[in-house]
Amino acid sequence: MRTLxxxxxxxxxxxxxxxxxxxxxxxxxxxxxxxxxxxxxxxEAEDFDPFFYVPKPTxxxxxxxxxxxxxxxxxxxxxxxxxxxxxxxxQFGQDFWFGPVAMDYTDADYIEKYNNVWICDKPTIENHITxxxxxxxEVPLSIASWxxxxxxxNGESPILAPFFxxxxxxxxxxxxxxxxxxxGDKAAYFIFNDDADIHxxxxxxxxxxxxxxxxxxFDAPEDSALNNTLFINYSIINRSLIDYTQFQVGxxxxxxxxxxxxxxxxxxxxxxxFFGYNMDLCDGPTTPNYGFDVPAQGMxxxxxxxxxxxxxxxxxxxxxxxxxxxxxxxxxxxxxxxGTPQTYGDNGYGGLINSRYMFPSDIFDTLGxxxxxxxxxxxxxRVVGAISPQTFLSNDTLCLDIAFPFAIAYxxxxxxSLGPSYRAWYAVxxxxxxxxxxxxxxxxxxxxxxxxxxxxxxxxxDVEKEVLSGYxxxxxxxxxxxxxxxxxxxxxxxHIAIYNSSGVILQQSIADGSQPIIVDMFRFPQGMYLxxxxxxxxxxxxxxxxxx
Length: 548
Description:
alpha+beta; disordered N terminus; single chain; 9 helices; 30 strands
């Protein structure tokens, strides 16, 4: 149990960190949403204010639909050890920090580079593709600063943010034609980890995860579904040496649909969506609020099925706020803090029929289980929805696509069919319509969840360039051994280092061109390896090898 002194210390650390935490704003469509460098979403760390505005604000103190959101992760290993990492508000602790997994998280260069949210849009990228070789062209900062490569000497992965490698040299050099790979018309990229410090939110053990997030949206005024949706793609990488036998990811959301104290929540398992809406006819009187034109706000799992959904109280009861690592693991699994299963009906506790989903019925179904029909539904809506637990091996990557759709129902059809007394709930029906459209768009246009580095298939290294490069490495892919030849006239004496995908040095040697360097790759596991060649004249070559 936390002591008062611990709480004070944690709050002091949180406050000092929040003052310098960088963020970026997505604002290309009807939504204006803030993303933080440490993976926290939709809340200003410094002012503790909500920042998911729909429609975009036009005056002071606008209403928002979400106060805070972020990932919850729980895992166990083969020995039964538990691991957790979660984001809520940073009010009493923190489990995630900006940047990739590294050896030194306090290095000034590391902090300057990764305390950042990189924002880039499609028109800027298209202009760069057309004009990068034009005389007088200057690479825009949004492209020049893209974090394509990590510092392998600090244990960072050699390739980080996805980019198109124009000349296939594995180095992000936009002045030579490389550019960011994004989705949507505008994207915000952020990299974070759970390894930089002790976990003070869940008090759980570190998982040594590296997480890459890309929030993206479309400028689509002709498409009301896309124009009112923010998408987020996550790549979660297991940089530890541990194979997790039960690994579960959830999305925490604190809905503030205008006024914070009159919200209900529900879920639709056919859409893999949970959502927040107003509990009565009019939003408020707590300000800011939407008045009578009350929206509904959703969160959809796009490439995974929703396995559990839970609405919990803003207190420390057995169905209240999680405190220990065990609480977080229970909530992700669909249990309560005492380990008992969530049950169907009322507040989800102590019933006869187990249910992984709270409030799954349509809100107009008088015989179903919704917050409307519950006598004890919380009005300050804090929820977590999770995907199913799975095995997550060392060096594996889990990809997760989610979306946040929004709707206000002005349609006369709802008023005519349901009557004006239900006006504040029309938005839920409209939200489900838009969720269907978002899912259809995703299924039609996204063939692979992962957004990754891409080589230029049209780039050919001719004989002249190969000679000038001063080295050769073969074969690639490799099963047993590779041979590295250095041209001493072109390169001089070189330092050669071999790194695994986590940035760990496996072998080092010096080559002067007098004889080839033969590396036994048979002893290394299957995967990608980086060979780095440094010459005395400061030339740096990075070469990826695929070990079969």
